Amino acid sequence: MSAKLLTVIVVMGAAALTLLLIRQLRIEASACSARLYQRLIENEHTEWKLRSEIAARSRADELRRAMAELGGSWAPIPFEAAGGDQP
Predict the structure, then answer these.
(1) The dihedral of CA 8, 10, 13, 14: what is its sign?
(2) Distance (Å, rounded) from C-alpha 12 to C-alpha 21?
(3) Residue 86: its pLDDT value, please?
(4) Residue 45 to residue 64: CA distance in whole angstroms
(5) Which end of the chain is more exposed for a tag (fewer CB within 10 A), N or C?
(6) 84 with 45: CB under 8 angstroms?
(7) What CA–CA distance (Å, rounded) separates 26 from 3?
């Protein structure tokens, strides 16, 4: 009788530990996903800051003069924001 009881206790303990391990892995995966999302948001903000700085420093007359000096055919690059949201 005591061997059966000991076996049940060991099996229940192993099951509980397995459930705790699975829970911990889910928490770690969720935290990793949140960190990656935060990095993505930070990178998007940095990108928009750099874009606005480039736009502020670029003057149309200087660009036209540089394009005329370089020659060739020029066309604007179409821009579409990812997700459609711009700050």
Answers:
(1) negative
(2) 14
(3) 53
(4) 29
(5) N
(6) no
(7) 35
Residue 8 in 3-state DSSP? helix
Q: What is the 3-state secondary structure (H, E, C) of 10-59?
A: HHHHHHHHHHHHHHHHHHHHHHHHHHHHHHHHHHHHHHHHHHHHHHHHCC
- Chain-centroid distance of CA 40 in Å reads 3
Task: Compute, in degrees rounded to 10, the torsion defined by CA atoms 64, 65, 66, 67.
Answer: 50
Integer Cα distance of 20 and 23 in angstroms: 5
Which residue type sits at 40?
A: L
pLDDT at 39 over 60: yes
Tokens of 81: 């924001």
Which of 25-29, 32-36, 46-50, 83-87 has the least mean pLDDT?
A: 83-87
